[in-house]
Amino acid sequence: HLLIIDFGSQVTQLIARRVRESGVYCEIHPYNKVDSAFLDEYKPKAIILSGGPSSVYWKDAPLPDPKVFDLGVPIFGICYGQQAMVHMLGGKIEGGTSREFGRAFIEKVSDDPLFEDMFVGGDKEEVWMSHGDHVAEMAPGFGVVARSPGAPFAVISDPERGFYGTQFHPEVVHTVHGRQLLRNFTHNVAGFKGDWTMAAYRAEAIEKIRAQVGDKRVICGLSGGVDSSVAAVLIHEAIGDQLTCVYVDHGLMRLGESEQVVNLFRDHYNIPLVDVDASELFLGKLEGVSDPEKKRKIIGGLFIDVFDAEATKIGGADFLAQGTLYPDVIESVSAIGGPSVTIKSHHNVGGLPERMNMKLVEPLRELFKDEVRALGRELGLPEPFIGRHPFPGPGLAIRIPGEITREKADTLRKADAIYIEEIKKAGLYDEIWQAFSVLLPVNTVGVMGDLRTYEAVLALRAVTSTDGMTADYYPYPHDFLGRVATRIINEVKGVNRVVYDITSKPPGTIEWE
Ligand code: XMP
Description:
Subunit structure: Homodimer.
CATH superfamily of the largest domain: HUPs
Bound molecules: xanthosine-5'-monophosphate
Shape: globular
Number of strands: 18
Organism: Ponticaulis profundi
Function: Catalyzes the synthesis of GMP from XMP.
Keywords: ATP-binding, Glutamine amidotransferase, GMP biosynthesis, Ligase, Nucleotide-binding, Purine biosynthesis
CATH architecture of the largest domain: 3-Layer(aba) Sandwich
CATH topology of the largest domain: Rossmann fold
Protein name: GMP synthase [glutamine-hydrolyzing]
Mean pLDDT: 92
Strand order of the largest sheet: 2-1-3-4-9-8-7-5-6
Low-confidence stretches: 333-340
């Protein structure tokens, strides 16, 4: 494998994406975890040093274990990674008098295996710079192979050792041929064949799960979402009926969702599944509660109670399986970044492993969402399951501002089903990251069949996004919105007005609570 050592750049994930897109499997590990023992165990075939916000001259600057340079494997340093490499190998880094951000053009100084299919039809390449410090004096063995007016050491090369560095970021799309550059490194310099596929990942993941779990028991909470579904099917393939799934229906799922999950897992995959209808319990405890954070805490707490009770009933388990994805991991380990405030308490099964004394199995930890979907396809999960929009753990609770009642949940379920049906009919479902309805605690006056009505407002939401961190509202055609509104008002009792939410994130969040 290829090893990416992370120094805290905002775009380290993109390096991994680009590398895997070229058919080479890689993993990202934080610099402080990559010590001598780790390297002995991991045996990387090549290494990429990521960018980062630090300066090599800071006290306690993050630096790679010096052993990486003695492994005899090719190394590619990006921005801060380049500086760290040059600094440790005997060169000099300087603070820039001016920081350089954005578009720049580099020109080739000499040919290099790194430049295959680049600088075609001209001697310039458009790249994306983002740095404060830069190389001032080269380390022995290196030569300059490309430069720009602002970056005399834009690309450096030590072909003997296979060490390369760029001042710019090849992993971002603004570096027009960045993907090609990284591919040239992995294929031409490091000798990867580019034959890694999802099928290979599946086989490897299954081996890893078997090695980790042995003959112990695993329990997995299903939410109906893609991540936990894929994790469960993969783990079942690895260890069969040592896995038990638990599905908790809190009464705040979408229309028909519980049946779909139960059918798929129990009947289609034959995976042992405990399904618990805990709707009375959840809705009871939520009665009269309208504070969003209180709702979230109540649901998170009850979820753990119910899961714990069910786990005990089936005799417990040594491992808890979770569909944790790579972006979740990165967010929680971005040790170098500053502290971030809690906007919302996300509900997951955090707290359970300690309470039940379980270890975690997280077979999707290295994957991005679209890779999880590809793995799901590889495992034969039905397409509608794979392409599903994300659905939050607290479910409809955070789409009913104010007090929650079973009646309101039913109304919302009906309206939302119509909305989603119309989106699918219009062929827009896959273009949208997430679409849903929100039932507002506001009644307005209307007129239907010559009679006055005084009923609730329903808000429609749809956003595009790549990771849920930022989002844009979806620009529906007006006739589409009109059609949905008419159907909902005609078919759903209790709603007499429909509005469309045109707030982006930021400043809004995707969910209303
Ligand atoms: P926000 O509303 O914070 O949502 O912009 C970003 C993404 O996260 C989902 N979300 C959750 N997912 N448990 C989850 O599993 C939660 O408590 C939760 N809250 C929000 C939201 O649907 C969107 O995709």
